[in-house]
Amino acid sequence: MLRWVQNFRWRSLRSGLKSKLAKSPSEGDRRIEDNHSPNTLSGSCPCHVRLAKEADSPAIVQFVQAILLHHEPLVRSLHVCRSSASESGLADYIRVLLPDSFTLLAVNPVQPERIVGVAIGRRSCHWDGKRLIERADRTRCDQLRKLLYIWSIVEAEPNLHQHFCTRCLFEIAFLATAIDAQRRGIGLHLTQRSVALARDLGFHFVRMNCTCEYSSRVATKAGLECHWTVPYHHLVDSTEQPVALPDPPHTHIKVHAMALFPDAVH
User: Fold this and answer.
1) Is the pLDDT of residue 13 over 70?
2) Where are the domains of the chain?
């Protein structure tokens, strides 16, 4: 199905989305951003958003990996960044996602070559949790293996496919903002545009797995409801010890989701 969507709609979507993103925000977008106005510039997102191209892949991998390794609370608590083997493994995982993803880039309008935010969207299927377990079993690095196991739980346990009675959802798999560009509404802007992209692609539901309290707040502002949550201290190993304990306020994993066409849901 994914290949069919890409082949049938990708060219028209790319041109159409660029024109949409170039316009000023809708009334609903303004309402959300106005509520966040202390952290924005001139009441709007100080960036230009575009669909990623194949040539952007190396820069995207490097950008997302750097943010995850050094600033994502779960990854930091697992000390994944301490192993070069983990770094390459994480980069490989991101690299595998990109060819079949729908990725949005936020770039500096003055320096268009500079990425200030990334939202990697993908098709989420009910077997993704199992595939993450299989990937974890093949991973030699213990820290990265634990991370993949946690991600597999987050993918499978909420049972969103069964809840929404659907074979696939649009998932905002990775949302990352440059450290020196945070608190300006870029993450919210990318999330809103990802939701619009999912709707344009014909998806009926969108999900966002939040292992960080800040991303959970962004998801809520974008209109996604929390459908599942678990405290980090409930994720324990064979010795009943917590696998990861990120620093507060990152005490829970939360999975947010929403119906894109609520009137069509029975």
Assistant:
1) no
2) 44-259
**Other beta carbons less than 10 A from residue 247's beta carbon:** 9
C-alpha to C-alpha distance for 174 and 184, rounded to whole angstroms: 18
pTM: 0.81
- Kindly list the distances between the CA atom of residue 208 and the CA atoms of 166, 229, 253, in Å, as whole numbers in the listed order: 16, 12, 11
Q: What is the pLDDT of residues 201-243, one digit of tens each?
A: 999 999 999 999 999 999 999 999 999 999 999 999 989 999 9
CATH superfamily of 44-259: Gcn5-related N-acetyltransferase (GNAT) (3.40.630.30)
Query: What pLDDT digit, counting tens, does each position of 148-184 carry?
Result: 999 999 999 999 999 999 999 999 999 999 998 888 8
